[in-house]
Every structure is written in structure tokens, then in C-alpha cells.
Design a protein that fits this description.
- The protein is mostly helical.
- Helices cover 62% and strands 2% of the residues.
- The longest helix has 30 residues.
């Protein structure tokens, strides 16, 4: 590392060698200068070819994720109920963290395939190696989403807007309640879009949660409309997957994660991706994000 005119430059010696990661010094410099496009059909096609040889293991793991989600959704609220309202919030974070770690396993698995390493079913559980950073990421996202949710709720209460409506009552279908949740879905979608690459950066580039969130946000902002279209497209695909008793999700869900991973690798390739970088260097939240 050397200093010139108060600018920090990083050499490959500062980085742990890793086959998949980010470029040193000018982080994604080409993308920042030239932008990038998101080709949905090409990404879809490459993703399917990418995961198809391993379809059996991926289907089995996806079913395991569904079973785990249903189990956690039943057990966690039962335990959290004894803690009152705070318990439900803690339970939601625990549930989200466990599911996030399970789903992040797709990225560990796909990284092995991408690097032509030997891959096994066990690699799908590697997301739990990063559970601390994934948990911190989930907590921050919950905070980001809950704050505006509560602000809107208390403003509505102060203004006396439909006092008879309990927005936490799922059996209530008044116009205000529907509008409230519809309004809440929009920022949730935007937040998800901004931080879509965060789990990949935590698992693959081994960033801490804040560096991963900031890098994801800045990458997405280089083509927000394109990434939003990508998110909406695969959201609709997963809605189709809900048909036939939800069995279609066993294919569309791993395909969605494969597509996100392929999109990430395409950004690396566009940025000159034959280099070796990544690793503990990015545990420093000040690593060259300032130059991004």
C-alpha cells in the first residue's frame, strides 16, 4: 500500500489470493466509468446451463430450505411469544438469519462450480460459516424497513386515520390496511434491489456486512433500472413457481440464485476479471470504497 496525494493505492500483495472477488485499487473502475447492461434472457440461459448438471442436489437442498423455513416459522414464534412484542422481533431476526444462511449456501456452492472445484452437497451449508455477517446484515435491513413502517403507523394514529383498523391484524381487510401494506412493499422491494449482491459479497468476497452492503448499493446504482427489472422478472418467475402446490419453486428458487451469481460474475468479467483478489482485506470497511 502506498500514499500519493492523500490517495490510497492497494496492490495484490495486500489481498489474500482468491479466484473470485473484486478488483484492487479502482474497485469496479470499468463499471463505474462505462456502466453495464442487464441481459435477462442471456443471464437466464447461462444460469440454467450453469446449474443443470447439479439439479438433483439443488432440488433436494431447496426442499430442505422449505422444510427448515416451515419448521422455524412454527417453532420460533412459539418461543418468542413468551417475550411479548420484542420476542416477535427477535424471533423474526433469528428466522431471517437462519434462512439467510441456508440460502447463502447456494452462493458457496455456485462459487465452487464457477472455480471448477470439486463440489459436494455439504458445500450448500457453507453459508453458516458467515452467519455473523449475515445476521448483522439482516438486523440492519430490518431496522431500515421497520423505522419507516413505524413512522407511518404512528402518523396515521395521530391523524386518527381509520382508528378501527389494526394493521397487525391479518384478518383486517379495510382499505387503509391494504394501502398501508402496499405502501410498505414498495420500499421493501427497493431495499432488496439495492442490497441484492450483499450475501454474495459476504460469502464469496468475504466482506464484512457493511462493506458488502455499500458495495452492493453502489454497484446497483450504476444501473438501478436494469437491476430492478432483473429483480421484478425473477420475482414473477418465482410467482409462477408457486403454481402446482409450490413445487415449481424447487426449480425457480435455485435458478434465481444462480442468475444472481451469474450476473455478479458477469460484472467481474466486464471489469477485467482474470485477476485474483478478495479475502480478509475487505474486512476493513474503509477498503477502497471511498474511491468507488
Amino acid at each position: 500500500m502506498e500514499n500519493q496525494d492523500n490517495e490510497t493505492f492497494y496492490t495484490e500483495d495486500d489481498l489474500l489470493q482468491n479466484k473470485t472477488g473484486l478488483t484492487p485499487t479502482d474497485e469496479f473502475a470499468t463499471i463505474r466509468m462505462e456502466g453495464y447492461s442487464v441481459e435477462f434472457s442471456d443471464t437466464f440461459s447461462r444460469s440454467w446451463d450453469f446449474m443443470k448438471p447439479h439439479l438433483g442436489q439443488l432440488l433436494a437442498y431447496t426442499l430442505l430450505c422449505f422444510f427448515s423455513y416451515l419448521t422455524l416459522s412454527f417453532i420460533v414464534p412459539q418461543i418468542a411469544g413468551y417475550m411479548g412484542t420484542l420476542g416477535y422481533l427477535v424471533g423474526a431476526i433469528v428466522n431471517l438469519t437462519m434462512i439467510s444462511a441456508l440460502l447463502a449456501g447456494f452462493y458457496s456452492y455456485y462459487q465452487k462450480i464457477y472455480e471448477n472445484d470439486k463440489v459436494s452437497f455439504q458445500n450448500l451449508f457453507d453459508g453458516f460459516q458467515h452467519i455473523k455477517e449475515l445476521a448483522l446484515y439482516q438486523i440492519l435491513v430490518v431496522v431500515i424497513l421497520v423505522i419507516p413502517f413505524l413512522i407511518i403507523f404512528f402518523i396515521a394514529q395521530k391523524l386518527g386515520v381509520n382508528d378501527t383498523v389494526d394493521i397487525f391484524d391479518t384478518n383486517t381487510y379495510e382499505t387503509f390496511t391494504i394501502g398501508f401494506y402496499a405502501f410498505f412493499v414498495i420500499p421493501s422491494c427497493l431495499i432488496f434491489t439495492l442490497y441484492i449482491f450483499t450475501p454474495i459479497l459476504i460469502v464469496v468476497a468475504r466482506m464484512n456486512f457493511w462493506s458488502a452492503m455499500e458495495t452492493s448499493r453502489k454497484l446497483v446504482m450504476a444501473n438501478f433500472i436494469g437491476i430492478l427489472g432483473f429483480v421484478v422478472g425473477f420475482a414473477l418467475l418465482n410467482l409462477l413457481g408457486l403454481l402446482f402446490l409450490g413445487l415449481g419453486l424447487t426449480i425457480t428458487l435455485p435458478l434465481t440464485f444462480a442468475a444472481t451469481f451469474i450476473l455478479y460474475t458477469k460484472l467481474i468479467e466486464k471489469n477485467g476479471g482474470g485477476t485474483n483478489f478478495g479475502g480478509d482485506f475487505y474486512a476493513d470497511e474503509n477498503a477502497p470504497l471511498d474511491a468507488f
